[in-house]
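Box 3.1. Reading complex inputs
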Amino acid sequence: MAKLRGRGIAAINYPIGMNLGGDPSQALVHSNPTGKFTVALSSIDLGQGMKSVTRQICAETLGVPVEDVYVDTADSDTGPHCMGSFASRGTHRVGNAVMVAAQEARAVMMEAAAEELEVNASDLVTDGKGNIHVKGAPHRSISTKDVAIAAQFKQGRTISGRGIFLVPLSAVNPETGEMSPATCYAHACLVAEVDVDDETGEVTMIRMDSAYELGRALNPKLVEQQLVGGAWMGLSHALFETPEPYYPEPIHGPRDFVEYLMPGPGDICPHDIAVLERPAADGPFGAKGPGEMCANPVLPAVANAIFNAVGVRVDDLPITPEKVLRGIRAQGGARPQTRR
Amino acid sequence: MAKVALQFFHNGREVAIFADAGTNLLTVLRENIGDVSPKFGCGQGGCGACTVIIDGEARLSCLTLAETISGASVTTVDGMKDGPALHPLQQAFMDHFAAQCGYCTPGMLMAAKALLDRNPTPTRDEIVEGISGNICRCTGYEPIINAIQSVSTSGAVKR
């Protein structure tokens, strides 16, 4: 009986978005008479930070404070079409659509400001604090609020913009199967260290070290948060989760949170993360997106670490103690592999 | 269904209501009183989203029969902040990005408050133990534990 230490590594390429019938998302941006902006989306923020990131993108593009932008999401009755929050496509697809919409709205806002200041719109700049002024002459200034009021009540102009970002359907070469499903790829590498108990088959996580390359991190704290949580989501797939974890009959499967296995606060281990930023040429401000790929490298890395520890190759998930133990028995005992 | 008279303290305020016999505390809080800060997760004590503090103890409101809390003092996340000032734990959760989707957050805050109220300087293991009945499906336990630890070591918890 012993606890055997093993180390495994995995590296992944992760395509951003998908390629079914083309992959579009839309956004609408308009100003309110108070000079605040609303972004209408039907994209869903399920905790990953879509609202925060699209808000940043809109504010940056318009040249207004982030506080002046409100993002209204997740109602497909009132928001323009979105394919959805999946395939790590939110920041890239929706972010690009918001950027296009905000650019159009900004152009109208600058025209309206130009009319008020009696100058040419191309001579105007935003200060990012809620003002528009003549380039090189900050005193020739008007607030975005006053521009919004003038546009609304005097000029009869809507400060608004439409945006769509579409990655068109990529045809498949019938001869080779070749296609181009994504416009950019994120990358990750993760090293997992585990202890495997050769008597019980239990796997304990010791530590994880990872590097993620995901384009420009528009909101570094949200990126970190996704990477921390996502790695454990991956670990949960690797070691815990299945509707029928340990028994052959579905009747023995879990029915609820009490019986469905997930990692708890006591199961986590230290995880060091390095974020590498290699901006995507077609990403909003160079962003790709962390999304699903924060979970993906964990599964093969853990499977490799278990192999390294006891010499058992488990190729169906989750890697339960039972499967590890059966593997150890089948080969007549643990066979620790070389540590590199 | 027969109604029963209930009197207890909700975040320091005395409430007296009639509730259906056999109703659980979570339903009373959310539907009779309108305090929706405790969340309905699994409804059977498996996830901790409905955690409230009853007379100083963290309890699962979905498993607590409302009739059993007569005269008791019930604290929810709604009663944590003092006017506009957030409770130090709430502030720490914000500062440490300890929420993603946010559904487990009220239960986590309650479990953490109950822990710190009886043990202001818990070890990391004690914090893990203190929130072990709460599931975070975004698996953001690390920032949650960090947030609680920051409050415990800074000594900012007074209440």
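In summary: The longest helix of chain A spans residues 90-117.
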